[in-house]
Amino acid sequence: MISLINEDGSFYIDGFAFPGNSGSPVFILTSPAEYKVKFAGIIGSYLPYQEAAISKQTGRTRIIFEENTGLSIVWSVKFLEEIIKSKEFQQQLDKLSKVNLGKVNQVKKSGDTILIKKD
C-alpha cells in the first residue's frame, strides 16, 4: 500500500525499513497473476513514532522514546529523474569520470529504466 506523492517527491509505503535499508529499491507488483513488477523508487528512511515521558514532579520531558512505525519514506522515480537531470548531478558525474569511471555520455530514461551510458 502506498500514499499520495508528497510535494518533495516522496511517498510512504506500509513496510518496515531499518538502518542500512536506505537506497534499497522499491518495486510495486502490478500483476500478481503474471508476476509483473514496476520500479517505484528507493527507500529514504522509516517514519519514527515518538512518545515523551513527562516528569510528574517538574512537568518537564525526562526522556523521548522513539519507535519504528512500520511506514517507510520512498523517493519516487520522478524525483530521482529530476536529480539525474540536474546540473549539480551532471557536475558530480563529470568529477567522478575524471577519477576512475570513464566519461559518462548519456543519462536517459527507457520505459521504467534509467540508463547511464559511458565510454
What topology, given as strand order, has the largest sheet? 1-4-3-2
Biggest beta sheet attributes: 4 strands, antiparallel
Number of discrete domains: 2
| CA(first)-CA(last) distance | 40 Å
The residue fraction in helices comes out at 10-25%
Average pLDDT for all residues:
82
Low-pLDDT runs:
none
Structural class: alpha+beta
Radius of gyration: 20 Å
Number of strands: 6
What's the number of helices? 2
Shape: extended
Content of β-strand = over 45%
Return the string of H and E elements.
Answer: EEEEHHEE
Write up what this structure looks like.
- The protein contains 2 helices and 6 strands.
- The protein has 119 residues and is an alpha+beta fold.
- The chain has 2 domains: 76 residues, no CATH class; 34 residues, no CATH class.
- It has a 4-stranded antiparallel β-sheet.
- The longest helix is centred in the last third of the chain and has 15 residues.
- It is extended.
